Amino acid sequence: MRQAARLLAGALLAPSAALAAAQKAAVPPPYAGVYQPQGVDEIGWWREDDESERVLAASSLVIRDEALTGYIRGVLCATVGADRCHSVRVYVLREPTFNATMSPNGTMRVFSGLLLRVRNEAELGAVLGHEFGHFERRHSLNLFRTRRTGTDVLAWTGLLVSMAPSYRAARAYRDLQWSIYGHLFRYGRDQEREADSLGVGYLNQSSLPPQAAAAMWQNLMDEAAASARARGLRKPNFKAIAFTASHPPLAERADTLAGLARIDGEGRDNGSARYHAALAPWLPLLLDDQIKLNDFGASDYLIQNLARDGWSADLWLARGELYRARGNPRDVEHAAAFYANAIALNDALAPAHRGLGLALLKSGKPGDGHAALRRYLQLSPDAPDAKLIGMLVPGGNAP
């Protein structure tokens, strides 16, 4: 019976796989230059975009790291070509969700959560190329009416917030702002398929392996499934992810992206080593932001996915923090082991000694816990929590 079911499932899936393999990625045409707005409405829209970019440039959400921004821009150029990326202005936002958008005036917004969810330049290029595909095909013009409605909402909400400038009101406005921006750049499925085809077409012509597009998408599906399992759900809610809310069905998309990739491009350098080096200074902060999302399943999946290229002290530390934050007795035991792994790789990593000490104290092992906390205080005597930690250690605050 099971054998018959497997044969039937194979027969049903075969046409989809064959169809995907028969498709070809769009060949990017010679670049015609930056589109110039036509008519009063489009000119007005471009002016609004310019004003939005001025506000964005001054926002505290922007990660102001010239090296990181320049690196991401370099990956975009390697993907779509130097002529196409010349007019793009990249802004990296400290926002731990998975997303990237591109507006008509050439502003590309890259969420920091995206950087945590790709493992090499090819996967990052797949997402950036997809967004550039929307830009080159001018898909956003078809959303003009929606955008006008959305910006009207933002304008009125901003006015109301200015009349009641409390912290909660400002925070609610920021959440609404990002929600509406996500809606503004939510394209139809046909547009997504066209952007997919063009995005893989860019990769096919680049020096990066185009198979990364399907791999990135598979990782995203696996993360959503891990998140659902940890919360006791049978199926993940893909519509809760801004980048996937309007996209084609996931199985279809993974098959299509794999079929569009040039087979002879699979052996190309995916830029994994360069990507890890560029992200290293920001990895602890991005992991900390992810853990604070309180999504245990997704966070644990992301940490282990990043570790597929090798465990680092930062990754072990993040996993220890994640398990200690959940706080079940078995979690604390695991956390202590993860902190010990981090210390074995880097004994000078002070937060790992702090986490180990706190986990051991909670596990009923005060002797070893005090020793770990003393080591933390030796490494970070001026830490903001040094006095508090010192209160947990006999003689810890002694002069």
Descriptive notes:
This protein is mainly alpha-helical and 399 residues long. It has 19 helices and three strands. Strands 1-3-2 form a three-stranded mixed β-sheet, sandwiched between helices. A hairpin with a 4-residue loop joins strand 2 (100-102) and strand 3 (107-111). Helix 7 packs antiparallel against helix 8 (167-184) and helix 17 (350-362) runs antiparallel to helix 18 (366-379). The protein is elongated and about 75 Å long. It starts with a helix and ends in a 7-residue tail after the last helix. The model is unreliable at 1-19 and 156-185 (pLDDT under 50). Keywords: Hydrolase, Metal-binding, Metalloprotease, Protease, Signal, Zinc. Belongs to the peptidase M48 family. This is M48 family metalloprotease.
**Unreliable sequence segments:** 1-19, 156-185
Let me know the number of strands.
3
Q: What structural class do helix, strand and pairing data support?
A: mainly alpha
The overall average pLDDT, rounded, is 83
Rounded to the nearest angstrom, the distance between the terminal CA atoms is: 75 Å
Helix and strand pattern = HHHHEEEHHHHHHHHHHHHHHH
Helix % is 55-70%
The major sheet is characterized as: 3 strands, mixed
Shape: elongated
Rg for CA atoms: 24 Å
Note the main attributes of this structure.
399 residues; mainly alpha; three-stranded mixed beta sheet; 19 helices; disordered N terminus; metal-binding; zinc; M48 family metalloprotease; TPR-like_helical_dom_sf
